[in-house]
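Any chance you'd type out a single protein's sequence alongside its tokenized fold?
>
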Amino acid sequence: MLNKQAKTLTPKQTQRLLDHVSHTRYPDRNRVIVLLSFKAGLRAVEIAGLRWSMVTDASGELADHIALPNRVAKGKSGGRTIPMNAELHAALLALREAVPDKLRADWPIAYSERGGYSAASIVNLFDRWYRELGFQGASSHSGRRTFITAAAKKIVEAGGSLRDVQQLAGHQNLTVTSRYIEGDAAAKRKVVDLI
């Protein structure tokens, strides 16, 4: 029996998703939600639990990392520090400018008219966007899988190892991280030709 996993998205599909959410009622917030998944690898529950204090420094300025505490992350040791991607940083700055009334340190980044989103609400947002775009097999976990796969492909260039990818993902076990990584047929062909 095959394990059913959320599909990863190509860069072109990710851009289509970002273009799509730019036409929604809350484009700045929705762009940040998408980028938290695709550029930081956050789970729906982590996106829902993320507060401004977790992305700002002691002076209230946007930090160069996300400080995700255990209470927000999945599991007891899922807390982690994730370096801030430049595109995500810019989107958070734009969101801060768009909603200055929602900037208290304890307020959720993924806000709604009634407060913060639940993890289920984040899942539903992604499901609706993917359905509207016709992306079959994609789910709220697609951004996370896409992030982990991209990190695994680039980590050696950055001087790291799969252990670093595991830590970025917040997994206790490298075996779990490896299940997230999508294989690449072209890369397999290249490496076999090099042998």
